[in-house]
Amino acid sequence: MGSACIKVTKYFLFLFNLIFFILGAVILGFGVWILADKSSFISVLQTSSSSLRMGAYVFIGVGAVTMLMGFLGCIGAVNEVRCLLGLLKQEMGGIVTELIRDYNSSREDSLQDAWDYVQAQVKCCGWVSFYNWTHNAELMNRPEVTYPCSCEVKGEEDNSLSVRKGFCEAPGNRTQSGNHPEDWPVYQEGCMEKVQAWLQENLGIILGVGVGVAIIELLGMVLSICLCRHVHSEDYSKVPKY
């Protein structure tokens, strides 16, 4: 059952990226056509408006990038999504470790709030482990035992959705001086494996949303091309001359 699900997911991912590749080719071709066509009203517009030429270059750039993403995605799908998941995990790891290092308890930041929510709900701490927080200068310079509030171990009966932010001091008196991570009442497991497991479990939903967006974009491109062809077929002899 598991292997069959992986195969279906792989084929859906391949199809999704193939659609992206085709969509990129259409956008790229549309941009090239605007620049290369000298026998229609488009060429007249180019001479009077630099915005159209600039738009054509934008189409070419976006189309080329979309084709490249689709091509790499197809390769990743053929390799059973490991390449894409590995790349995503590496990119997320870099972002999260930098976020943890620069975390400031006195600053309002949406990314910090989002990571606090992840740690509290997934019941993990740090990226690889809770030791990632030892790279935060503000936290480690505290003289008392202080830890990330969102990492605090909760009891089984605590189902509260509220998330504590910033840094918290450990309750009770500590005889030793300094902030030692071994004394933190936090989850010791990092969030990396749990986030990767969540991605694998919800990959079908993610792909479904992505395919839906790609189909909508493709339909929009088809309608745009049809409208452009309709405008191209009109009689421009009626256009007033100045």
Automatic annotation (TrEMBL):
Signal peptide: none annotated. Its main location: membrane. It is a multi-pass membrane protein. The chain crosses the membrane at residues 12-36, 56-78, 202-223. SUPFAM superfamilies: Tetraspanin (SSF48652). The keyword Transmembrane helix applies. It is found in: Cell membrane; Membrane. The keyword Kinase does not apply. Keywords: Cell membrane, Glycoprotein, Lipoprotein, Membrane, Palmitate, Transmembrane, Transmembrane helix. GO terms for cellular component: plasma membrane. Pfam families: Tetraspanin. PANTHER family: CD82 ANTIGEN, TETRASPANIN. Belongs to the tetraspanin (TM4SF) family. This is Tetraspanin. The lineage of its organism: Eukaryota, Metazoa, Chordata, Craniata, Vertebrata. The gene is CD82.
